Amino acid sequence: MDFWFTEFQTKSFGLTTRVKEALFMGKSEFQDVAVFDTEEFGRMLALDGVAQTSIFDEFAYHEMIVHVPLCTHPNPKRVLVVGGGDGGTIREVLKHPSVERAEMVELDKMVVEVCKKFLPELSVEMINQNPKFHLKIGNGIEHIAQAENQYDIIIVDCSDPVGPNEELFSRAFYQDVFKALKPDGIFVQQTESYWQDQELIRSLHQDIGAIFPISRLYMATVPIYGGAFCFTIGSKKYDPLAVDTAKIPELNTRYYNRDIHKSCFSLPNFVLELLK
Questions:
Q1: Residue 54: which of 119, 116, 5 has the closest Cα?
Q2: What pLDDT, on a 0 to 100 scale, did the predictor assign at position 152?
Q3: Of the listed 157, 160, 176, 207, which one is catalytic?
Q4: 16, 147, 175, 251 from 66: Cα distances, Å
Q5: Exposed/middle/buried for 1, CB within 10 Å: 0-12, 13-18, 19+?
C-alpha cells in the first residue's frame, strides 16, 4: 500500500510526496512531531502535519535566513535564534568566525531530540556541543521581551503563523525585538510564500517598516515550501544592498553566494506592489 504525506498549504492547494518509511511519530506537549523518509525530499520533519524541513533542500532555507543578515552586519558577535529546533540555522550561524555566542530558544524539546537522532546533518553543532552554542528550552517571545541591547542579530526561524506562533508575527513582538537588539542590530524572519500569503506579507512589511529604519524583503527557492519563499529583514543601521560583496567571505555554502546576496532583493513587480 502506498503511503503519501500531504500538507495543505491553502484550502485548495497542497504538497504531496510519497513516503518510504515513517521514522518517528510522536506527540509532544505542544504538537505532533513526525519524521518521514520520503521519495522526493529524503528525510523530512513535519510538525502538526506541516512540512518544516528536509534533507533535500534545507540548505536553501537555512543559508538564506542566516547569511544575508550576518554578511550585512560588519561584526556579528552575539546571535539569537528563536525556534530553529532542527539545528540547521545554528549550523550556518557558526560558520561565521566573528560569532562568539549563538543562542537558540526552542519551545519544544522533543523537536531538538528527534532532529539530533534523525536529521544529524542539520543538528551537527548541537550533537558536537559546540562551545559557542547555547540552547534554552523555553518561550522565545518571553525571552526576547526580557532582553535589552543584547544581540547583534536576531533570527526568527519559526513555523506558520497559526496558534501560539501568531504572536511571532505581531507588531508588539517586533517592538520587543527592536529593544533586544544592539544599536546597530539586525533582525530577520521567514515570511512565507509571496504567492499564497500576500496579505500576511503586506501586513508584516508595514509593521516591520514602522519600527526599523531599514526594512527589506528578499526571496529564495525552497521546494518543500511550495517553491517561492521570502524573508524580511529589519535593520537599525546597515542596509543589505549597501554591502561590498567582494568582502563577503567564502562560507562553504550550496545556495548563498556573493551575487545572490544582492540579487535576492530584486523583486517582481507584483511583490513590489504588495509592499507599497
A1: 119
A2: 98
A3: 157
A4: 28, 21, 21, 11
A5: exposed
Q: Which three cell numbers stand for residue 88?
A: 540547521
Average pLDDT, the chain: 94
Any catalytic annotation for residue 239? no
Q: Which residue has the cell 547583534?
A: 152
* Calpha distance 175→171 (Å, rounded): 6
Tell me how crowded residue 218 is: count the other CB atoms within 10 A of its CB: 23
Amino acid symbol at 118:
F
Please state, in angstroms and rounded to a whole number, the distance separating the CA atoms of residues 218 and 64. Answer: 9
Average of per-residue pLDDT across 217-239: 94
Taking the model in full, what pTM does it have?
0.95
Band of residue 185 on the pLDDT scale cut at 50, 70, 90: very high
Residue pointed to by grid coordinates 550533537: 127
- pLDDT number for residue 182: 98
**3 Cβ neighbours under 8 A, 6+ residues apart:** 18, 19, 22
